Amino acid sequence: MTTHVFNKVSVTPSQVVNCSYSNWSRLFPKFVTKSKVFSPLPKAFLEYLESDSIILHDDGDLKVVINSDNDYSEWESEDSEDEVEKDNQKGEYNKGLSKDQPTVNKSKVQHKNPIAGFEKLHNDINLAIKELGGSITPKLNWSSPKDAKWILPNSTTRCFNANDVYLLLNSSDHIVHDLDHAFDDCYNDGSHVDQPSKERKINMELVLREWVDINPALEFRVFVKRNQIIGISQRDLNYYDYLDSLKTELGSKITSFCKDHVIGIFPDADFIIDLYVPRPFTKVWIVDINTFSRSTDSLLFTWHELTEVQEKIEAIATEEEVDFRLVTEHNVGRFAAKEHSENYVPRDIVDASLDSSAMANLAREWNKLSYSDDSGSDDEVN
């Protein structure tokens, strides 16, 4: 049995700051998509993102655009014949109500303005989306809410209005990481640094990037240590049979791009960069830059491999080919569950499932809330 030593990967606060979107994207304007950055963000907006509930602003003039070619196509916004029939039946029912029958007193229902404190940002977001072509993908300084894409009808991070943006950001654990845990496990001069992002002197930013239909097969992650490429991994972990024939061409393109346009320009010698190389492979786009740390997915490598290779940097520098890894066969397990499927279930339920007493407490709290909701509904009936 082989025993591996756990190698520590140290990251400094300055390295985290350098990987904030506005800090790295301004260094490579030719290689990033069009975007709009809002910073600093209003305190009310940051509090809204961390609130327990999700309340959306009523933008009655905005339409939901849904791609019918996905698992959520039944959410189409246009009225189907069945929906029209239901509306007609509801109308006939309302007409038949007698005066002595109970009705909901809508005047008693209080609606809090969910965008109070950041109305200007709300309007600017909608305007920016129009300027960027009508649809965007959002992120904060470091993370994209990919783990919450299931909550939108498109099952992507494609947003058509500010409410789409809010829904994604509010539902994402990745966004919580940016707000509260971006500097976890950082070290300064050997001392551990653990301070929430909002308590540090850094402006949180909302980034809206124009929507681009990316072929996931052509996105790659490059691991750079001491300004040397120590590995390249396929970003999407599904099998694409045509990639193997393109491996040499893609590897050469990626390596040349990093050496000619990134290494030496990005301020840190250790980092991880995500690249997109669309056909006909004449252009390389930078998708993101992350810290060289265990918080970043190592994909087809292990972090043990990546840390062990640190000791072989000089040997790697003399090698003609970089270790470029592709998925070599169909992974049935990848098709058994959707990516980020663990985020489809509320965190409270996941935690409670590990403890029978916690599950019992959760059930009791749920019953209390259900009873409270029923009582509240009765109070609103005349």
UniProtKB/TrEMBL annotation:
GO CC terms: cytoplasm
Annotated segments matching region Disordered: 73-109
Leader sequence residues: none
Xref: InterPro entries: CDC123
GO BP annotation list: cell division
Pfam families linked: D123 (PF07065)
Coiled coil regions, renumbered to chain: none
Biased composition, class Acidic residues, residue ranges: 73-85
Keywords: Cell cycle, Cell division
Source species, domain of life: Eukaryota
Family, per entry: Belongs to the CDC123 family.
Protein name as catalogued: Cell division cycle protein 123
Organism: [Candida] railenensis
